[in-house]
Amino acid sequence: METNQAIAALTALGHPTRLAAYRLLVQAGPQGRMAGEIAEALEVPGATLSFHLKELLYAQLASSESQGRHVCYRANFAAMNGLIAYLTHNCCADSANPGCAPASDCGC
């Protein structure tokens, strides 16, 4: 992951509604969630949610798929793992403590 991609991802996740929506997508796994389900769970109007989901799409943290009149959103697990790898790339490189390495990824 490039620095600009990491900045875009962290910026997108830096808002409470977007972070909550992304966490719901991660929790849903590969099948994702319908936009209406996300709006209901977060108790936000559809237009507001659409604005926030657009930011997650722009940051490539999520993808969308039209299913008739509805839209299904899915977390981009490769991007999520890429961001984690970027953030922890040199984790504990200067530490003498061998137990400080980050936890392994979720395998998604």
TrEMBL record:
Residues 1-95 form the HTH arsR-type domain. One of its GO terms (molecular function) is DNA binding. Gene3D superfamilies: Winged helix-like DNA-binding domain superfamily/Winged helix DNA-binding domain (1.10.10.10). Pfam families: HTH_20. It comes from the Bacteria. Signal peptide: none annotated. The keyword Transcription regulation applies. Keywords: DNA-binding, Transcription, Transcription regulation. This is Helix-turn-helix transcriptional regulator. It comes from Stenotrophomonas koreensis.
